[in-house]
Structures are given as C-alpha cells and as structure tokens.
Amino acid sequence: MIDASPTAPAPSRTRLIATDGVAKRYGAVQALDGVTVTIDERATGLLGANGAGKSTLMKALLGLVTPDVGTVEVLGIDAALHPGEIRRRLGYMPELDCLPLDMTARDLVVHMAELRGLPRRAAVLRASEVLFQVGLEEERSRLIRTFSTGMKQRTKLAQAIVHGPELVVLDEPTNGLDPSGRDEMLSLVRRLSSDLGIAVLLSSHVLEDVTRTCDAVVVLRDGRLVTSGRIDEMGGLMGEGVLVRGSGDLDAFAAILTARGLVADRRDGGVAVRGGAGEDELLDAVRDAAAEAGIGLRELRPAGRTLEDALVDALE
Amino acid sequence: MSVDAEIRDVRYSRYEGERRSRLAGVVSLARWGALRSLGARRGWKAKAVPITLTLLAIAPAIIVLGVRALFAEQSAIDLSDALPYSDYQAIIGVVILLFAAVTTPELLCPDRRDGTLALYFSTAVSRREYLAGRVLGAVVPLLLVTLVPLLVLFAGIMVFEEHPLGYLQDRWAELPRILAGGLILAAFYGLVGLAVASLTGRRAFAVGGYLLLLVAPSVVGGMLGEALGDDADWTQLLQLSVLPINFAASLFPDAEVPNSSWAWAAVYALVVGAAVITLLRRYGRGSDT
Predict the structure, then answer these.
(1) Which residues of A113-124 are buried (b: 16+ CB within 10 A; e: fewer)?
(2) CA distance B156 to chain A (A)
(3) A38, A62, A152, A285: least CB-packed within 10 angstroms?
(4) Banded model confidence at residue A194, pLDDT cuts 50, 70, 90
C-alpha cells in the first residue's frame, strides 16, 4: 500500500491536463485515436456524441484506463505512474447510478471523504459544508433511496468535492434531470469554477450545458480530437449583429431600422441587422422596429458564426 | 445565547488539513461495511436479526453463569466442566451459520446492485484494498458470535471461582485456543460468505447460495457416513457447515473430534483457499496502485 506522503511531482500551477497521442482500443472499437490536447482553463467542456470517446478519455485522466499509446498528465502528474495520487486530488462524478441506496447522503459523503484520506472529524465537517453548498443540508439524514433524480445528482456532486479537489471531473451531470433540475445543476457547476475555485472538466453531449458552464471546449468524434479552444474565440456572439426572421413586411422593418441609423440588409429570408452602441441597444432597436412595422418575430439569432456553427463545421 | 453556543462558517473552503494513508481508507471500508451488515443507521428490522442471533450465541454462557449465580452454594455443577469450550461453538453452530448468512452478503451485494464500485474505484482505493476492507468488515462482526461468547464464558467462570487469579493461571492456555477458534470460524464463514456474495448482486441469491454450498455437502457427507459405517470418519470432512467448528474443537486437548487436526486443517485450507481465489478473480483485476 502506498503512503499518503507525496510520491509524485508537484502539480503544475497552470496546466491542468495534457495528453499526448493517447489511443485506446477495446477489441474492434477504437475508443481513442491519437488524442493530443492541453487544458488550462478553469472550466472546460468535453463535447461529443455518445461513443465519441469522452468517458474513455475521462477514465484515462483518472488512471482507471491505461492507454495503449500516449501519455496523460493531470495536475502535472503522470497518470500511468501515479494514478492513485491523481485520484486523491481529483473529484469524480460518474454518469451512471452509483449511490448506495441504503445510506444517508451525509454518511455517504463522510465515507467518501475518509476514502480520500480525510480524518473522521474533518470528513464530518466537510460533509456538512458541501451538502450545504449543493442545497442538501435539510435532506442530509434521509436515505438516498428516497431522493429524486436531482437530489441524487447533487449528492454525487457533493461527494466529488468533499475533499477539496483541485480539479473535478463531471460526467454528464444533467443526465435525467427535468428542466428546473438541469438549470440548478448547471448553476452549481458554474459556481464550482467561478466561486469555489475548483477547476471543472464537464462531459456532455448537450452544447448548451457546455456554453453555460465552461470557458473552453474540447470536441471529440469517433475517438479523435476535432477541435478545442476558448468558447468566446470559437464563435462570435453579437459581433456581427443579429439575423431576424419573421412574418409581415420585412422590407418596412428593414427601412425603419435603417432610419434609426442601423445597417439592415435582407439575407437568408430575413433581415441582418448590425450597428448601434452595443448589444442591448441593438436588441432594443430590433424590438421597437418590429413593433412599429407590425411583424411577428420567429427567430432572432447572432448573424455571425456561432459556436454551434463552428462545431457543426468541425464535425462535418 | 448560552456560552456553549457556536457560530459555524459553512462556506466551502479548500481542505488543507491532514490526509491519512490509504490504510485508513481500508479501515473506513471495513467500518462502514460492518455497520451496514449489523443494520446500524437502518430500520429496526435490519438490526433485529443480527442482534437476536448475537444474543442467542451468548445465551448458553449466560445460562450456565446464571445458574451458578442463582444457586451458588446449592449447585453441584462444576462450571469449568459444565460447558467445555471445545463444545461451545458446536452448540451454537446453527446460530453462527445464520449470522454469517445474514451479514456477509450485505458487504458486497449492495455495492454491485447499486453500482457503488465505480464510485469507490474513482478514489485512490484499489480493488484489493476494497476487498481487504470488506473481508475485515465481514470477519470482525462474526467475532461477536464466534469469539465473544467464549470470552464471556471464560470471564464469567473466572469471576465465580473462589480464586479467580488461580483459575487464570491454571487455564491460561485455553485463551489462545479460544482466540484461534474464534478467528478460524470467523475467517471461514466470512470468506466463504463473501465469495458467494461476490457472484451476485442479489442478497437473497447470496444467502440461498451460501446455505446451499455449506449444507448440501454436509447432507451428502452425513449420508455417506451412515452408509459406510463407523470406519468412515473421513466423510465428516465433507460436512462443510461444521468443518471450522470441528477444526477449532480439535485444538482443545479434551475434545473428541474424529480425524486429526491436520486433516481438518487441510480441508479448511482448501475451502478457504477456494474462497480467496474466487474473491481475487472477481475483484483482483485492475490497477492496484
């Protein structure tokens, strides 16, 4: 057995994750195929369809899967040499059901803290803290079998952060949640990196989950890296104005906008509008002009390339 | 506000305190597993069976000591011979078997059923450390029925003796045998119970399979013994349900147990070895670092 004393190199301050040519094959399936990526951002989304290799990559980061080829470094530690050390420093929220139904949320979180090396007294205190943070302080003494899906997801999140990890890996945290539960979970995930100072790697196949919670994105397809980078650099939001589609006299709508000093061109069956002092002013002008022209708005979206456009292009 | 009142800051903060060794994780797995198997922090139904069986296991010792206490002078019973240590575990053999059948599946089946293994292995706990924690969590509670009753009996007899220290001096050699006997039984029933439980996520199947595995050979051995007559002592070696009891009893010089201690030890090692191999095959794969 390995002692708790540091056996691995000191973690890098900036580079959270670095993989180099990582490949993994399961029988006839090439789960990962030469993935080379560096992740430095405090919140990064791992995006891809089912079977893209997201889970395999996350397991490789945790040292649970040994790549056939390539190297994986997490927090400056080689995952092949010190997987246990990495797992002590990381938090992991699995996608599938994994909670012991006959335990209370408090007991589970205390137990998981102890497994990550915290003394019992510290584990109890930390469990109270994180259950409060995820909004389960009132339900901490209830058996997990009585929990809703949202409460179970929050319990999984609580156990992942109880030991104060430097990086938490979240595998599809919004799976099975209703719209309000999903909204709450995404808010919690965003708080991890913005308020609590925990770096986040979030896996999802839902683009909106990533754009709402992350600063950067890594896109996988068929085990290969498709693209990666900062979200705000991958797709312009309002920089190129907005595209308005609707019913009614769109020419009159465009004329009203032009009269207000904006640039309005007919494009793609709608009106592309740009100019103005800022995003708020632009949107206010569109609203007022639509009301004045009496058109019904059907679609209002950025006129330039969005992240979605960039990803669709990358995946094609 | 009283002077003992305390305002606690529950804001999340980075943990910078002490981190214990991975051995502490094994102990935590054993502790929580043992508590779960005994029904702790669960409804009264989960507690009722282990508590009842523990009381039944201690009952013979309490009865003997009670008789001595109530009829101190009138009773002609010599406590030290009334209930020989070598016979005690045979008397409560069914209780021990049922206790193991009830408690050991609780250590592994829920983890397989609920998918909790994925959660455990995402920490630094390795598969073998998980297994070590669960074995410890099975064996320690079993000592409640395999060791504690004999210690109660020994301590009770000693207390009722006119010269307790003299009794201790005369019979101190019994203590290692009692201790070894308790451990032999706990290890056997615990490991075999875990091996069966490792094959299924359903608790009922684990309980049924465990009882079948131990009782069926005993029935066959008994029938063979009947058919072959008095010379077929070896057939008793097939009686797996009482195998560790006979092995433990053979450690006491006054015990009348067929077959030699070595024969019992060999069969015991065979069965326990098979259980360990089963567990290692089920949980041994994967990184151990």
Answers:
(1) bbbbbbeeebbe
(2) 36
(3) A38
(4) confident
**Mean pLDDT within A216-244:** 81
Mutate to test the interface with A, among B6, B9, B12 (most CBs of A within 10 A): B12
3-state secondary structure (DSSP) of residue A198: coil
What DSSP string runs through chain B? --TT------------S----HHHHHHHHHHHHHHHHTTTTS-HHHHHHHHHHHHHHHHHHHHHHHHHHHTTTT----HHHHS-HHHHHHHTHHHHHHHHHHHTHHHHHHHHHHTHHHHHHTTT--HHHHHHHHHHHHHHHHHHHHTHHHHHHHHHHHHHSSSHHHHHHHHTTHHHHHHHHHHHHHHHHHHHHHHHHTT-S-HHHHHHHHHHHHHHHHHHHHHHHHHH-TT-GGGGGG-TTTHHHHHHHTTSTT---SS-HHHHHHHHHHHHHHHHHHHHHHH--S---
Cβ under 8 Å to A: B residues 111-150: 111, 114-126, 129
Cβ–Cβ contacts within 10 Å for residue B266, how many?
13
Q: What is the block-wise mean pLDDT of chain B (289 residues), using blocks of 10 residues?
A: 58 79 92 93 88 96 86 64 83 94 94 91 90 96 96 91 86 91 96 95 93 88 78 80 91 82 92 96 66
Nearest neighbour of A83 by CB, restricted to B11, B118, B289: B289
Put simply, the answer to whether A129 touches B29 (Cβ < 8 Å) is no
Q: Three-class SS of residue B27?
A: helix
Question: How does pLDDT run across A252-299, given as a tens digit for each residue?
Answer: 999 999 998 889 988 888 899 988 778 788 889 999 999 999 999 888
Q: Which of A100, A115, A159 sits opposite B25 (nearest CB)?
A: A115
pLDDT recorded at residue B14: 76
A205 pLDDT tier (thresholds 50, 70, 90):
confident
What is the reported pLDDT for A5? 37
Instruction: Give the chain A residue whose CA is nearest to the CA of B46.
Output: A102
A interface mutation test: which of B6, B7, B10, B15 has the most A CBs within 10 A?
A: B15
The answer, for A59 touching chain B at a CB cutoff of 8 Å, is no
Q: A87 — contact with chain B (CB < 8 Å)?
A: yes
CB within 8 Å: B287 and A126: no
Give A112's contacts in chain B (Cβ within 8 Å): 119, 123
Evaluate whether ipTM surpasses 0.95. Answer: no
- Looking at CA atoms only, how far is residue B227 from chain A in angstroms? 49
Any CB–CB contact under 8 A between B36 and chain A? Answer: yes
What pLDDT, on the 0 to 100 scale, is given for residue A11? Answer: 46
Pick among A102, A108, A128, A146 to test the B interface (most B CBs inside 10 A): A102
CA distance B151 to B53: 17
B110 touching A (Cβ < 8 Å) = yes
Kindly state whether A8 is in contact with chain B, defined as any CB-CB distance less than 8 angstroms.
Answer: no
At B11 the pLDDT is 62
- Residue where the block lists tokens 């029938």: B223
